[in-house]
TrEMBL record:
Superkingdom of source: Bacteria
Keywords linked to the UniProt accession: Acyltransferase, Cell shape, Cell wall biogenesis/degradation, Peptidoglycan synthesis, Transferase
Name recorded for this polypeptide: Peptidoglycan bridge formation glycyltransferase FemA/FemB family protein
Family: Belongs to the FemABX family.
InterPro entries: Acyl_CoA_acyltransferase, FEMABX, PG_Glycine_Bridge_Synth
SUPFAM superfamilies tied to this protein: Acyl-CoA N-acyltransferases (Nat) (SSF55729)
Pfam families named among the record's database cross-references: FemAB (PF02388)
Length: 334
């Protein structure tokens, strides 16, 4: 398969992470974006990141999203990344969007990445059902929490982001501290909305939705509508009034909005790999799977080394960094 460079604005992938818009967004924060097109009509977004010493890694999020699993396509794509790139690439890191099968083996020449950049496990709702059918497919506790929030007077609204963004980000900081998760700067999320209004190519519809109790904002979600899929990108909630379950009603009203817009899927975007009560994000697992839908387990992130010596050195540094963040830094936070 032959590949050539193409214009970023001409990418029209049905997958948000493979859109020209996403490439332009990541280019605002230290990545270089390259659009490629094959002789068979496939188009792919490749992101490049500079490493210490002047070398680069190539990162490809969820290419060939709806194609049948074929790792030869990935190898061919990695070679094209190296051939068409103006950079010295030491390896290609690919988030494989295909579902993982229990009997699958590691493809030759691929090395499992120590981290998954995109969450490999998620929950996807099929919106080709009535509201009553969607509700009946939920866990009974989820339905109860939705009704409880309504009964308590929680109100859901689509918010003008210019007016409410700062309040949402304060809730996001609160959420990150409570759940011990890392988040980006305020400018990162603001740029997402700005670019959705100014990008010259195909853009997602971005929404900031909020849950209010009286006049107080208790929770807020950032959701994208792109192609036939709504994606729950970021969610924030207050430590106050959690007992009235505002996040459940907020999620349900967002699902209804996506369905009414004619979208086919709602991606809750990321869950822990198993329902393990000892996992720090077990509550997130219960929350998202409670809405029903299909639990999807993707193959995750894999590396294809192009310079084996340089790649080995990078992996060593990456493993040390991971150990620091998981153990040493956590110890000092106590």
């Amino acid at each position: 398969m032959d590949w050539k460079k193409t214009d970023l604005a001409e990418l029209e992938s049905p997958n948000l992470l493979q859109s020209g818009f996403w490439g332009a967004f990541k280019a605002c924060f230290g990545w270089d974006a390259l659009a490629m097109q094959s002789s068979h009509g496939s188009s792919v977004l490749v992101l490049y990141r500079r490493l210490a010493g002047g070398s680069y890694l190539a990162y490809i999020p969820h290419p060939f999203y709806k194609a049948s699993p074929d790792y030869r396509l990935i190898c061919d794509l990695s070679s094209a990344c190296e051939a068409l790139s103006p950079y010295n690439i030491i390896f290609t890191r690919i988030d494989i969007g295909w579902e993982k099968h229990p009997d699958s083996t590691s493809p030759a020449g691929f090395i499992k990445s120590p981290v998954d950049i995109q969450p490999p496990d998620t929950v996807i709702l099929d919106l080709n059902y009535s509201e009553e059918e969607l509700l009946s497919a939920m866990h009974k506790k989820t339905r109860y929490n939705i009704r409880l929030a309504k009964k308590k007077g929680v109100r859901i609204a689509v918010l003008p982001y210019e007016q409410y963004f700062d309040a949402w980000y304060e809730l996001y900081l609160e959420t990150a501290k409570r759940d011990k998760i890392s988040i980006h700067s305020k400018e990162y999320y603001k740029k997402l909305f700005w670019l959705a209004e100014n990008w010259e190519g195909l853009t997602p519809s971005l929404f900031l939705l909020g849950a209010f109790y009286g006049n107080k904002l208790l929770a807020g979600n950032i959701v994208s509508f792109y192609g036939d899929t709504a994606t729950y990108l970021y969610g924030a909630s207050s430590n106050e009034h959690r007992n009235i379950m505002p996040t459940y009603l907020l999620q349900w009203e967002t699902i209804k909005m996506a369905r009414e817009a004619g979208l086919k899927h709602y991606d809750l975007y990321g869950i822990p790999p198993a329902p393990d009560p000892s996992h720090p994000m077990y509550g997130l697992y219960r929350f998202k799977t409670g809405f029903g839908g299909k639990t999807v387990k993707r193959a995750g992130c894999w590396d294809i080394p192009l310079n084996k010596a340089a790649y080995s050195f990078y992996r060593l540094a990456e493993n040390i960094r991971q150990t620091y963040h998981k153990r040493i830094k956590k110890m000092f936070r106590r």
